[in-house]
């Protein structure tokens, strides 16, 4: 075929013939025992037709099909997932090596022109032509459209919103049980977490999977954190700036180790309006490579050091794992600080200063205890020298959770980006590459706080970060209450609010007379307001009010004349009680284990473990493998089945237990170097 | 050809053969008199080879070639720009209907396999095959690589960074002239603006076109603005939240009028890691359609109204027009407020409250005068009821600039998204759709401020927003100065700094002894620091310091004992002087014109015009056409040639001049309804 004829042939197909319909060809990987070769399932349907995983599972006779990754498509079809097309099929795939599901609307349609496209080619053909071509693979015909409408639309799926309180109507809301949390924290932690976040109005689920709406109740916590942290880094000489969210692929990929860690999760913009971009542009997953070319430009002399910039922004990491509000989201808010220093020691100091501030955010604001330490080589930030971390603990699941990390990048990035200055000793000395740090704290902190303190009644918020610290609710109004007493009650509540506001207490009133006081109590508990003030006619008679603590339900009568001092004291007491309770739990579940035989049993009791460890990366891999549930031939999903998960190293705590002389590593025969904290983790 | 053979043929080409090289085929539209049909220029080169517009212009013999839009490619080749390929060429294009430039490296290369791809097809062929195919179009052979290296790398281009001060070395920096602005504000406003922003360290150019880095000097101004505005909206009952940056196309496109305005500028994410997304996902250009589905869910009763949320975020509008720092950028920071109310009147009130705050940001913080008013029907927010605006004025260009807008959305969006409540009068009354408002203020304000106040010495910053309000510079140190005097001088400077800090003045010292005091004065002027304090041995003798104002250069001696009161007074005086000077300019260049014959001459004297106007949209179009430069057959670029631009309506000012009885519209015979402000604008 001549070039010209081929060109004209192709140009015939472009643009698509009028009335033609686009098809999708998706490759799914079913859950398969490790010992077996998976049988990919190829789904051919109109691009707008829903092809839900359960339907595919049913008709292909497989378990939990998921969209195949490049690894699978490359192995089976010699092409990355996005370039897969039916043209990739060959004789090798006959005889049950793959399964094909084809939508019944296409199967025998000889009228319509269908378009099959992947990222490199596009073909037009009829449904009958297509099924003729596919017949050698014995496709299964599925009526996807009927299947989709048969599935109840409200059925909750993993990535969609759980059935929300909002769908109950106002009348039903009179029953406090209905507005509250309907599952037990211990029995169904995952649903409990969803429910308290949505019913507590912290967050709402969103129609783009892995993205969530931060409602005022959670965003205001983030504001408290940013205010506290921002003030302190400014005192440390850091200034804020803003770098673009877009990164060219050239710049993004400059530091190889670094990008390797992020590449699978980078979101790419390829189109603007109706124009394809000449080069795809990435959305920052973090800003090292965004910022450092400019550090190289701005840092001309050792007098320009240290350069300490921070930005408050959002970053995107398109995780394909099961998303979880606050903990694993595709877009999240954070701060990222990036500093450059003349000496390694100054950078050490910076890393430590920030780590202490991170611990402060957790312990002083969120009342969540943390263990500070250093990450092992396996777990450090790719491309950096070492990583320090605050690690926290979720008692209900017994899992550790990384709180925030502060990295010493050494000179790796500065050499890559040429961030260098003349030696202060003179130009006959070698030039000096900057020592850099980077550090980030994200909205993840809010998720940790919720998981640690909240209970079956709803959120429990530490007073220092709660949007509303006190709610005033009038009580004891009956049919017999006189108008005068009632008016007096309301005006007292309003006066109390003003008094407390003047004392810098964040206080609201709940005068919603269409709801009973009991309903309003439950609502305030659901939302985690630290103190409820009940004001009734009897209280007024003694010039006092009843304060009820959210954390432990304790009630105290407070004289109105002392309200401006007693309430702030009470709030501080709640703050420290929450911290104390959480710390006690963490302390009793951080167990020193010196012998391997005790490791897994201790882990299974929802503990984190401090174990003597040799600091050899391979040994850490071994610990992880050996502590995961015995391989039962299933390709386990660690997110949903936490107990099967192996323990990984969380950090080498700065606060080390005394090591016995001659102590060996818990797993191997090498001498132990550090007590290292291991655990199942998020 | 059978389906199977075609599929296998295509699969051969995919992935590309090893060692093959990708080509690009770009279509350019040259500047062409309106009366003539343009001759598109097609450039064929390796995808990595730079093919600069000046080189294309030179070899194709055309003026200012620009990448062709869909309109041109559809007219000429029947295909949108992104689907154009050489396969789109036909006999119709012979005989000089198009011009083709082909890179010399490809021309006669029969060894290498080249890949020609567009969004629908991909072909592999040799250079000789390709040039054989193209020969009927008489292509011009260009050595693009040699041309690229012949062009000096430092030559500033419109979208790239201007030659920066940073490239001069430290020795040369001793000459104050070199660090300063090298072009005149009046003579070359565009380059002046670039220079003061980059040399003043407000901003740096970035390697993704249309995106800029906000350095601490500008970001700190944004922080001052956010702090001021955030506090005031919170007092007004607004709370902050955060909605995801991603929008599904289904949701984005729900309100038709609205999306029509934004669609051409929406950036689309189509890929994550190496996986194509099933559906492209948009990055928010604004959040009406992101937020309102949730307003519908959250607003259950009239007691939930008003709902007032705001978010501080960044949005993306992928403009294809000439980008300009702060004024027209592809990503920008802003706040967007969205409220829902029971009545239209409450929404009216909200719109006005916010507009007043916007005017406050300009006038009280940035010392930039504005005119408040309502947009005409032509200029209002698409999908809204009416739009209010603060309009400002750039004296140097005589152009108006939209400052910030506050929209009354009426019930249009609430009907679309079903944001409704039961009628408080009872369920037998019709349900009520919420009345909504939305309003935004962006980092554009910083650009306006810079354009209005700054001068040929650099930035001039209003003290209330300046990152550093005062710089203290020791002077008068010579070889003869004793160590004791010198030490005393430095310690006095440090003590002064502490005193001023205690008085809440943002003050720095400049002790860089490797630079002369004169150089440091220039540097402080370049950066726009409002007050420079010079402290020399002679001043110390009289216990005083010399204060030099950045805005007018005036010098005052201030007694050290009064420094904590005199400096804040001086700063406030500078703030009001800046506002007064700008207001005077704006007031004298806002001219009432009642007769059309005076309209264009007045406009050409860098004025905005207040003209009696009939409020009929078509008449506004007529005014715009009639006030643009007479058509000289050139396809004018309005960005670069402002005087050719027609005047559009900026607003109907709330502050109306008295209208004469029987006054007609300035352009037509209809009676005038309002004085309307017209002008050339950004």
From TrEMBL, chains A, B:
GO molecular function terms listed in the Swiss-Prot or TrEMBL record: aminoacyl-tRNA deacylase activity; ATP binding; proline-tRNA ligase activity
First-tier enzyme category under EC: ligase
Catalytic reaction(s) noted: tRNA(Pro) + L-proline + ATP = L-prolyl-tRNA(Pro) + AMP + diphosphate
Keyword Metal-binding on entry: no
Aminoacyl-transfer RNA synthetases class-II family profile domain residues: 210-462
Superkingdom in the source lineage: Eukaryota
Pfam families: HGTP_anticodon (PF03129), ProRS-C_1 (PF09180), tRNA-synt_2b (PF00587)
Gene Ontology biological-process entries: prolyl-tRNA aminoacylation
A GO term from the CC aspect: aminoacyl-tRNA synthetase multienzyme complex
Swiss-Prot/TrEMBL keywords: Aminoacyl-tRNA synthetase, ATP-binding, Ligase, Nucleotide-binding, Protein biosynthesis
InterPro entries (alphabetical): aa-tRNA-synt_IIb, aa-tRNA-synth_II, aa-tRNA-synth_II/BPL/LPL, Anticodon-bd, Anticodon-bd_dom_sf, Pro-tRNA-ligase_IIa, Pro-tRNA-ligase_IIa_arc-type, Pro-tRNA_ligase_II_C
Disordered: annotated segments: 621-642
Enzyme Commission code(s) on record: 6.1.1.15
Family statement: Belongs to the class-II aminoacyl-tRNA synthetase family.
The protein's name: proline--tRNA ligase
């Amino acid at each position: 075929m001549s070039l010209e004829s081929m060109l004209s042939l192709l140009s015939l197909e472009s643009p698509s013939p009028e009335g033609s319909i686009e098809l999708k060809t998706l490759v799914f990987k079913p859950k398969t025992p490790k010992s077996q070769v998976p049988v990919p399932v190829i789904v051919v349907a109109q691009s707008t037709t829903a092809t839900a995983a359960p339907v595919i599972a049913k008709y292909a006779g497989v378990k939990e099909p998921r969209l195949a990754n490049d690894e699978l498509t490359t192995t089976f079809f010699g092409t990355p997932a996005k370039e897969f097309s039916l043209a990739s099929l060959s004789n090798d795939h006959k005889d049950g090596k793959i399964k094909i599901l084809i939508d019944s609307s296409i199967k025998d349609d000889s009228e319509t022109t269908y378009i099959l496209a992947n990222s490199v080619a596009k073909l037009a053909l009829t449904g009958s032509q297509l099924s003729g071509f596919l017949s050698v693979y014995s496709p299964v015909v599925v009526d996807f459209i009927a299947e989709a409408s048969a599935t109840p639309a409200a059925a909750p799926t993993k990535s969609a919103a759980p059935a929300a309180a909002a769908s109950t109507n106002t009348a039903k809301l009179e029953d406090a049980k209905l507005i509250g949390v309907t599952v037990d924290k211990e029995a169904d932690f995952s649903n409990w977490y969803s429910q308290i976040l949505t019913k507590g109005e912290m967050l709402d689920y969103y129609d783009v999977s892995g993205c969530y709406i931060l409602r005022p109740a959670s965003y205001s916590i983030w504001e408290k954190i940013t205010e506290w942290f921002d003030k302190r880094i400014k005192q440390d000489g850091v200034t804020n700036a803003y770098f673009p969210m877009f990164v060219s692929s050239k710049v993004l990929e400059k530091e190889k180790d670094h990008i390797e860690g992020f590449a699978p999760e980078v979101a790419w913009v390829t189109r603007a309006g109706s124009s394809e971009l000449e080069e795809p542009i990435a959305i920052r997953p973090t800003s090292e490579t965004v910022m450092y070319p400019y550090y190289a430009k701005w840092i001309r002399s050792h007098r320009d050091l240290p350069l300490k910039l921070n930005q408050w922004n959002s970053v995107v990491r398109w995780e394909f794992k099961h998303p979880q509000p606050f903990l694993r989201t595709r877009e999240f808010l954070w701060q990222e600080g990036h500093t450059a220093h003349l000496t390694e020691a100054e950078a050490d100091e910076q890393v430590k200063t920030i780590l202490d501030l991170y611990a402060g955010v957790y312990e002083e604001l969120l009342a969540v205890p943390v263990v500070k330490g250093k990450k092992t080589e396996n777990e450090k930030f790719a491309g950096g020298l070492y990583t320090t971390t605050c690690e926290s603990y979720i008692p209900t699941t017994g899992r550790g959770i990384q709180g925030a990390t502060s990295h010493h990048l050494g000179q790796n990035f500065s050499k890559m980006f040429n961030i260098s200055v003349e030696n202060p000793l003179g130009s006959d000395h070698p030039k000096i590459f900057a020592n850099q740090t980077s550090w980030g704290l994200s909205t993840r902190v809010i998720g940790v706080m919720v998981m640690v303190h909240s209970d079956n009644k709803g959120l429990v918020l530490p007073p220092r970060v709660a949007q509303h610290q006190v709610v005033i609710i009038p009580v004891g109004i009956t049919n017999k209450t006189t108008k005068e007493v009632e008016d007096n009650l309301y005006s007292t509540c309003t006066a109390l609010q003003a008094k407390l506001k003047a004392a810098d207490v964040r206080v609201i009133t709940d005068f919603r007379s269409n709801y009973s006081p009991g309903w309003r109590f439950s609502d305030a508990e659901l939302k985690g307001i630290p103190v409820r003030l009940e004001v009734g006619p009897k209280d007024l008679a003694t010039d006092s009010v009843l304060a009820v603590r959210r954390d432990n339900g304790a009630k105290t009568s407070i004289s109105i004349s002392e309200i401006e001092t007693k309430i702030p004291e009470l709030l501080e007491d709640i703050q420290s009680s929450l911290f104390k309770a959480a710390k006690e739990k963490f302390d009793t579940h951080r167990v020193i284990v010196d012998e391997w035989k005790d490791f897994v049993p201790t882990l299974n009791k929802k503990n984190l473990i401090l174990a003597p460890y040799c600091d050899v990366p391979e040994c850490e891999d071994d610990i992880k493998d050996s502590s995961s549930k015995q391989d039962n031939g299933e390709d386990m999903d660690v997110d949903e089945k936490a107990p099967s998960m192996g323990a990984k190293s969380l950090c080498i705590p700065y606060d080390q237990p005394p090591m016995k002389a001659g102590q060996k590593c818990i797993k191997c025969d090498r001498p132990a170097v550090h007590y290292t904290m291991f655990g199942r983790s998020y």
